[in-house]
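Q: I have 335 residues here and want to know how they pack in 3D. Can you give me a structure?
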Amino acid sequence: MCKHTALLLVSLSLFCAQSVSAQNAKLVDAAKKDGGKVIVYTSMETFTADALKKAFEAKTGLQMEYWRGGSTEILDRVLSEHRVGKPQFDVVATTGDHMRLMAKGGAFGKYESPSFKGFAKDAIDPELGARYRNVLYGVIYDKNQIKPSEAPKTLEDVVKPEYKGKLVMPHPTGHTLTTQWLASLDKIMPKPRAEKFIRDLAATKPIFAESIVPAADRVGTGETPLGITFVRFVLTYNKQGASLDYVRDYTMLGDGQYITLGAKPPRPNAGKAFIDFFLEEESMKIQADTGEFVNRRGVYPPLADADKIKFVQMYSFGKEDFEAKKKEYQKIFFQ
């Protein structure tokens, strides 16, 4: 009986795999008849998008064209095209808050990809689909300037006197995501501690960079020993010859990024085929190898202890609340 049950389970699994493959093949064939390409609007890094383009085209024979911009630029372009009824995009992939605004504007349709099966239920949004990656704020440091034994042990340690003048961070009011990060700290520590940490952080007189990447650049080039930025940049700069590590404070605030089909995509079959590929293990591993914290089960970036990191979604703020936070941090950091 057990033997027959085992054989039945194997047969069912093979049938499911064949069904998914057949569905993918039909989409690809239909996409080729519709012009043979997909257009994606995204904020992912160019080197990641290029790697995915190469793999997608090799696997499917379809072309991938992408336009890269900041999340706000994507928001404006998508809604503008949608309002005039002439969308050029098939698929959009960017940060959750901006994706929700586009969804509210009616710019997205729904597509339940068979690749969803590789993700936990809490990583599937009923409107936006799969939260394919998390961008995580943490602390990175240059091991040539700060020995691992002398590095901060937690996020709160960066305000200790020995690190004064050694820290870079994105501008607290000029960089939207950093304002959001500061305002969300009470999700990972009690509110009184979060408020004290922000005041103590301001008192250390950190160096302010324009945004995430310039902050990471200063640490990666050795200009500044310590930085608040995305943890993934440890891998980015180490591949270029740097010697970076990150502070093992495993609960980290961040933002989720989603990939979604347009409401009226010019090439719907190609859009669906791309989403299927994008969320499959091959694509997720390509992204993880560049340092991305993807959400497909069992796929991690090649970063020590990456599997221990817990993602905590930052708060979403309306325009009025956000402006109030900017004014609050303006007083704390600059007056």
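Q: Anything worth noting?
A: The chain has eleven helices and twelve strands. Residues 2-33 form the longest helix (32 residues).
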